Automatic annotation (TrEMBL):
Location within or outside the cell: Cytoplasm
Family to which the UniProt record says this protein belongs: Belongs to the guanylate kinase family.
Name of this protein: Guanylate kinase
EC supergroup of this enzyme: transferase
Enzyme Commission designation: 2.7.4.8
Taxonomic source organism: Streptomyces eurocidicus (Streptoverticillium eurocidicus)
């Protein structure tokens, strides 16, 4: 008969490391929608607010969706090493303020970045433990419909974003996990589970 014996030597489980998760995917796939849906139910989930040279869309507020800066201010953020990563995307620059992210990780809180493929690659280089999540559209036609239907960009900008989307979709295999955005509710739930 075998008896389970506690020898008192079982190792203390390692403290869970706070995780940095990157959410990427082509423009119009629904990243902002999914994140907003998740944070409505779970406002405690912290999302990094990026700096961008893009002009605000109607309804976007300074310090909420982005810190809206001009080219000179963005240059300074880069020169002073204040960005964890940054990239030019479809004619504008976007970057993640470094200190806020480090403070959250230091405090043991999970961190979520919603950034483009170039940024995701930079994070993978500088923080190899980061979890990279790719949000994919159900189909190419549906992506075009969503990006066009959002109605926030000119036809020329939509073309630039669709050109970038082809490159981003081809890079899906670089990510740790793919979530297909068919249902916002389902994807928001899956993303929340990945953050925890
Ligand atoms: P991204 O942040 O990836 O650029 P958005 O969140 O702005 O994309 O979404 C683009 C458009 O697609 C919006 O009009 C949004 O309402 C719509 N959308 C997002 N997710 C879905 C979904 N699962 N089904 C249908 N439409 C969606
Ligand atoms: P949008 O103009 O639609 O808000 O964003 C355009 C693209 O820029 C999206 O793919 C979005 O994820 C990405 N983006 C937003 N913030 C950042 C950032 O700080 N860094 C990088 N690299 N990309 C970002």
């Amino acid at each position: 008969m075998s008896t389970a014996v506690s020898r008192g030597t079982s190792p203390v489980p390692p403290a869970r490391q706070p995780r940095l998760t990157v959410l990427s995917g082509p423009s119009g796939v629904g990243k902002s929608t999914v994140v907003a849906h998740m944070r409505k139910a779970h406002p405690e989930v912290w999302l990094s607010v990026s700096a961008t040279t893009r002009k605000p869309r109607p309804g976007e507020r300074e310090g909420v969706q982005y810190f809206f800066v001009d080219d000179g201010e963005f240059d300074k953020l880069v020169a002073n090493g204040e960005l964890l990563e940054w990239a030019e995307f479809a004619g504008n620059r976007y970057g993640t303020p470094r200190q806020a992210v480090l403070d959250r990780l230091e405090a043991g809180e999970p961190v979520l970045l919603e950034i483009d493929l170039q940024g995701a690659r930079q994070v993978r280089e500088s923080m190899p433990d980061a979890q990279l999540v790719f949000l994919a559209p159900p189909s190419w036609d549906e992506l075009v419909r969503r990006l066009t239907g959002r109605g926030t960009e000119s036809p020329e900008v939509i073309e630039r974003r669709l050109a970038a989307a082809k490159i981003e979709l081809a890079a899906e295999a670089e990510f740790d996990v793919t979530l297909v955005n068919t249902s916002v509710e389902d994807v928001a739930r899956e993303l929340l589970a990945l953050l925890r």
